[in-house]
Amino acid sequence: HVQLVESGGGSVQVGGSLRLSCDASGSSISYYEMGWFRQGLGESREGVAVIDRSGLTKYTHAVQGRFTISRDNDKNTLSLQMNDLKPEDSGIYYCAADPESVRLGLGWTSILYWGRGTQVTVS
């Protein structure tokens, strides 16, 4: 099992930047596909960015060109650099990991491991 803890959230003005981190323990993240998901108030959870074991990344259209997902297997950390933030980026951001697959679509319900989330507020 892997345990995931997010950090780096906060309040930021429109156009600002934040860097989220997800520290993993209990297992090496090299065994997992990983991703970032978010959930706005009253909204369903959605995929933001995912990264496979080889480092191949995919982004939801709304964040392409503004967000960058990366992984450091040596430090056992997943990161999300968020630039040019917009109010619609607000929400709770969750780190996720699965030994099989982490994808942007509705299949997120089958992902095995989740962090507790970190709040991002853009105003």
How does this model look, in words?
- With 123 residues, the protein is mainly β.
- It contains no helices and eleven strands.
- The strands form two sheets. Strands 2, 4, 5, 6, 9, 10 and 11 form a seven-stranded mixed sheet that branches.
- The mean pLDDT is 96.
Provide tags for this entry.
7-stranded mixed beta sheet, mainly beta, 123 residues
Radius of gyration: 13 Å
Tally of DSSP helical segments: 0
* Structure summary, number of beta strands: 11
Q: Structural class of the helices, strands and pairings?
A: mainly beta
Q: What proportion of the residues is helical, as a percent range?
A: under 10%
Percentage beta strand: over 45%
Q: Report how far apart the termini are.
A: 37 Å
Mean pLDDT: 96
Low-confidence stretches: none
Main sheet attributes: strand count, strand direction, barrel closure: 7 strands, mixed
Write the layout of secondary structure elements.
Blueprint: E1 3-7, E2 10-12, E3 18-25, E4 33-39, E5 46-51, E6 57-59, E7 67-72, E8 77-82, E9 91-98, E10 113-114, E11 118-122
Parallel strand pairs: 2-11
Antiparallel strand pairs: 1-3, 3-8, 4-5, 4-9, 5-6, 7-8, 9-10, 9-11
Summarize this, please?
The protein is an all-beta fold.
